[in-house]
Design brief:
This protein is α+β, with helices and mostly antiparallel strands and about 400 residues long. The protein folds into three domains: about 70 residues, Immunoglobulin-like (Sandwich), CATH 2.60.40; about 70 residues, Immunoglobulin-like, CATH 2.60.40.10; about 190 residues, Muramoyl-pentapeptide Carboxypeptidase, domain 2 (2-Layer Sandwich), CATH 3.30.1380.10. Helices cover about 20% and strands about 30% of the residues. It has a four-stranded mixed β-sheet with strand order 2-8-7-5, with no helix packed on it. A hairpin with a 2-residue loop joins strand 16 and strand 17. The protein is extended, with a radius of gyration of 30 Å. The chain starts with a helix and ends in an 8-residue tail after the last helix. About 5% of the residues have low confidence. The structure holds zinc ion.
Length: about 400
């Protein structure tokens, strides 16, 4: 009898443990516990299977900061009890940085050059990037050197951009000092497109009426509707169009706006203002090569289609709140701009949920000068109306 009891007790305990284990849920996680910065992912995306239980709430995971985050999720057992497990998700940045640089640099034999002087490396979350020059060259030996710029972001995305360094032979007389008194030519002041009244159409200009009855004119390849310069996917600018900086009116309005924000403790600045046709071309081409044309077209304009080429638009940054990416959304500076920019003549050019009108994803940081009168109308008590909707025009590429 004693023997039977000695044998039975452990068996009963084992069966008990077995039954207990059986009712506990078992969660099998995915092999890849990573998410891209600012992507839309849910708890369920990281769960392969749950035995003896189910997920209570398939919650969205906050992917707005880089690094490993812990996400508690609730599992309900078959006996309707709640268990919490912790997911460890690594938020990574898959957006490759972009290098902007000249494709060819020409120097004379023996001429000192800092090859890093005109290189700009840019990352979507504005990390400080270090650029290196890779390849061998000798400034004392004429020839063509194929070199490349290389940069890497903190998530390990590496980008290279090839360029050519041409060292030309020293000609006779090259050692002569340059005449010091050479008069510098007067800089050409560009015509400000926003301060010009609607151009009077002359023959050769194309005039049209929008679907909402506004009159438009395309003069030398530049389109004005009701006196407002319009650039989007439908309306482009010629490659030669260049105010070479923000227009004086835009700059003055921006200064006023940023001064007002500063009084409320918001230290903002215009990070990216005027961009030439050429700069936009290389920026866009880089995005296309990293992200594909369809994706790039949602957030980057093709050359000639960027509002940055007008000198009337800029992207706003404030340290600590993200810069030119969706981290800026709903932050104090973004909210302030959305509520106050119109007072200074600026519009939130790409409002949320209006991609089908503007042709671009929401950009809480991109502001365009249109003057106070129109900006007040488009502000619409915070429910921003797009230029496209207001004028009754499209923003679609023709090819
Ligand atoms: Zn912009």
């Amino acid at each position: 009898m004693k023997k039977i009891i000695i044998i039975t007790i452990p068996i009963i305990i084992l069966i008990g443990i077995f039954l207990f284990l059986l009712k506990e849920p078992k969660v099998i996680l995915s092999d890849n516990l990573e998410a891209t910065l600012n992507s839309e992912v849910y708890a369920n995306d990281y769960i392969k299977n749950i035995y003896r239980g189910k997920l209570v709430d398939n919650k969205r995971i906050d992917t707005s900061t880089l690094g490993t985050i812990k996400v508690p999720i609730e599992i309900e057992t078959i006996y309707k009890q709640k268990r919490t497990i912790e997911l460890e998700i690594k938020i990574v940045n898959n957006e490759s940085p972009i290098i902007e640089a000249k494709e060819k640099i020409t120097i004379k034999e023996g001429e000192e050059i800092n090859l890093l002087e005109n290189v700009k490396a840019q990352d979507k979350d504005k990390e400080e990037l270090i650029v290196e020059v890779v390849g061998e060259y000798d400034i004392n030996k004429p020839g063509t050197y194929n070199l490349k710029y290389v940069t890497r972001d903190s998530s390990g995305n590496k980008v290279e951009k090839k360029f050519v360094l041409e060292v030309t032979e020293k000609e006779k007389g090259d050692d002569q000092p340059i005449e010091p008194d050479k008069p510098t030519p007067e800089p050409v002041t560009p015509k400000e497109p926003d301060s010009t009244p609607t151009p009077t159409p002359t023959s050769g200009d194309q005039t049209f009426t929008t679907s909402k009855g506004f009159s438009g004119v395309t003069k030398d390849g530049v389109t004005y509707i009701d006196g407002i310069l319009v650039v989007n996917k439908t309306y482009s600018l010629p490659s030669t169009y260049s105010p070479n900086g923000l227009t004086a009116e835009t700059q003055a309005a921006a200064d006023k706006m940023f001064a007002a924000a500063k009084l409320e403790g918001l230290y903002m600045w215009a990070q990216s203002g005027f961009r030439s046709y050429e700069t936009q071309r290389s920026l866009y081409n880089n995005y296309v090569s990293y992200d594909g044309k369809a994706n790039a077209d949602r957030y980057s304009a093709r050359p000639g289609h960027s509002e940055h080429q007008t000198g009337l638009a800029f992207d706003v940054c404030m340290s600590g709140y993200g810069c030119i990416n969706s981290t800026f959304d709903n932050t104090p500076p973004a909210n302030w701009l959305s509520a106050n920019a119109y007072k200074y003549g600026f519009i939130l050019r790409f409002p949320k949920g209006k991609e089908n009108e503007t042709g671009y994803m929401h950009e809480s940081w991109h502001f365009r000068y249109v003057g106070e009168e129109l900006a007040s109308k488009l502000y619409n008590n915070g429910n921003w109306i797009t230029l496209e909707d207001y004028f009754g025009i499209t923003s679609v590429y023709s090819n």
